Amino acid sequence: MARPRTTKDLAKRIELDYYRRPDRWRRWRRNAALGAASLAALWLVIAGLRGDQRMYNSGPLSVRHAVFGAQCEACHVKPEGSRFFLRTTDKACLACHDGPTHHDSQVFTPECVSCHVEHKGHVVLADLSDQHCTRCHDDLTVKQGSLQIEARVSNFGVVHPEFAILRSGARDSAQVKLNHEVHLKAGLRGPNGPVQMVCGGCHRAGSARAAWPYGQPGASTSAPVPYVRGAYMNRIVYADQCVGCHPLGFDARTTQAVPHDKPEVVRAFLRLFYLDYAAAHPDDLHGEPEDGGGLRRGRDDDETPAAPPEQWIAAQIEAAETLLYRTKSKGCQYCHVMEDGSDAGGLPHVAATGIPARWFAHATFDHRTHRELRCVACHEKAAASRDTADVLLPGINSCRKCHEAGGARMSCVECHRYHDKTRERDPNGPLTIEQLVRARP
Amino acid sequence: MLIDASHKKWLGASVGLAVVAGIAYVPYARWSLNGPSGGSWSGLAYGVAGTGLLVYAALLGARKKVPTWRVGRAQTWLKGHIWLGLLSAVLILLHGRFALGGALTTVMMLLLGTIVASGIFGVVLQQILPRTMTSQAPLETIFEQIDHVSTQLRAEADHLMAIACGEEARERKHAPEPAIEGSDRLKELYHRDVRPLLGKEPAQRRAWVSAKQRAALFTQWRTLLPAAAHDIVGELEALCEEHRQLEVQRRLHHWLHGWLFVHVPLSMALLVLTLAHAVIALRY
């Protein structure tokens, strides 16, 4: 039997006032919505009561600023006349940082935060895009005077001039005589027999600690170039790189060498040496020094009368200094350039060597990051160079072999720094530790 | 809401605006000095536009609460809610440069993602479930009245059994008729197999999921009971089928609207956090 189910029957089942009663589903939904909104508000309130503002960070701070993660006011300060809005002003940055001007003639100085953008989790805030530099250097003008550098530099790979030192045809102004070709020949006489010198025998980045093969054993004096440790080659120092093959002998009667120092120091050393010698060898106080600056030897059959010690010593010193200072192919002049004239004591002026520690006056370079390359891979002319004045710096095209689009990085900040580090203040900042951790100057 | 041809304009406008916003983002991200940032003018523009659309989407709830407001048809608001809500997610992604940022913005992004995902899930369900309901529960009633109608069906079933056992008359005015043949066996089967399934408890209701099970049960009854009881069995079967369809309707309704328990509360939380984010971001 079919069950009757008319529209009227169905309508009778429905309560006419059902819609007036609260709907359970809607009530639950409304309560859930209010609960979720309350939870969100509660989170904000709890964080506010705890004074923890880290949740509002738009992103992670850079490594160096991580200490200020919970102290927004360390950098975000109220500008003049503002009661609500906060800004990151240069003043806030300069409270801790030193930001020396790029150049006195620069047309405009950007705000710190226009270049160094925080809350992006950058490890290095100075790692900027080229656009920051090319804003000016794409078409450089200066506030005053004439432009001293290339007006248009927009891209290392294409629109960048040759390095200034090479572009101008400049010569190495170092006052030292060095022939790279000779030094790299096979079979050179070394301290303990024939040697084949290599670049690393004399040139090493500051981080290298191995003993110098041609230096004074156990007495390394070669200080790293005072920039980034290991980035630049150690200074060439006689005691480290030269003494093994070029000892400063001055008298055949001894194996001692004069110190590699100023003429005054050398004279004092000679005087002490001959005083001791005269006391130890009174029989030798006769005879004349040999002409020609050769090393002298006292002779047993010398019949000349013994000279008074002072006179003998003065003669010996003069002979030694003649050998050291005034013989072109030997002594100091073998490597050094002597300036004209002499002081009141007759001592010569040795020209300062002036070997450049850095060749790029406005750029940096790091030998460590290029350690996988042979030296001559970049310094191609080194092995054939005979003249000290040769500039052995590789040209920009050598760099471009690797630093090109799609290859090694080639952004401006790879080599250049905006802030003139030579103008930085001394490292004696204004804050105490308490002020630093509270982040208020 | 069924996505049909009437959504074409909304779809076209939303996709068009998203494409324009995306195209504008490329040069902004490529050539802006410090890369894209939510705090730059362009980034702020994306943020303000995205937040505006988010607030508009949230106002749908208010619009539904006050149907008498003359601010456009609810259908139009719902279309705007769907398409402009999706567009707001795109704009906010561009505002946030596709990054999560700090703790607050990370939570906001996760909320936004969940809200959008639950909304899409809801829209998809609304394309499928209403048709399923029409085919699987043609005897549907008003959702809020399912319990009430079920109670009536339960009483109706008990009444049928009383008639079969000679305890009650079919019409009030008449005297009860004699019990039909096999009524004792029928009563026993009713209380064993059917009555528990007409109960109020959810576990009992869930047993009515399969029409095949129901049909098999009553086929078995017909073999066990004399022909005189078959009419009553037929009536009981029809009644149980209606009850079963109401349970199917209840279940489909839960699916159809359950996602709102995620979508709506998280939207409210997001609005609160968005307000805090806007104030703090503008201040700093």
In a few lines, what is going on in this structure?
The complex is a heterodimer of chains A (441) and B (284). With 441 residues, chain A is mostly helical.
Describe the structure.
The complex is a heterodimer of chains A (441) and B (284). Chain A has 441 residues and is mainly α. Chain A contains 13 helices and 6 strands. Chain A has helices spanning 7-13, 24-49, 90-94, 112-115, 130-137, 164-167, 180-183, 238-242, 263-280, 309-326, 375-378, 396-400, 433-438, and strands at residues 76-77, 87-88, 188-190, 193-195, 338-342, 348-350. In chain A, the strands form 3 sheets. A two-stranded antiparallel ribbon of chain A has the order 1-2. A two-stranded antiparallel ribbon of chain A has the order 3-4. Chain A has a two-stranded antiparallel sheet with strand order 5-6. In chain A, a hairpin with a 5-residue loop joins strand 5 and strand 6 (348-350). The radius of gyration of chain A is 38 Å and the shape is elongated. The model of chain A is unreliable at 291-299 (pLDDT under 50). Chain B is built from 10 helices and no strands. Helix content of chain B is 73%, strand content 0%. Chain B starts with 7 loop residues before the first helix and ends with a helix. In chain B, helix 2 (41-65) crosses helix 10 (260-283) and helix 3 runs antiparallel to helix 4. By secondary structure, chain B is an all-alpha fold. The chains are: A mainly alpha (441), B mainly alpha (284). The interface between A and B is large, with 46 and 48 residues.
Give me the secondary-structure topology.
The complex is a heterodimer of chains A (441) and B (284).
Chain A (H helix, E strand, L loop, with lengths): L6 H7 L10 H26 L26 E2 L9 E2 L1 H5 L17 H4 L14 H8 L26 H4 L12 H4 L4 E3 L2 E3 L42 H5 L20 H18 L28 H18 L11 E5 L5 E3 L24 H4 L17 H5 L32 H6 L3
Antiparallel strand pairs in A: 1-2, 3-4, 5-6
Helix pairs in contact in A: 9-10
Chain B lengths: L7 H24 L9 H25 L8 H22 L7 H34 L9 H19 L18 H12 L7 H5 L4 H14 L5 H29 L1 H24 L1
Helix pairs in contact in B: 1-3, 2-3, 2-10, 3-4, 4-9, 4-10, 5-9, 8-9
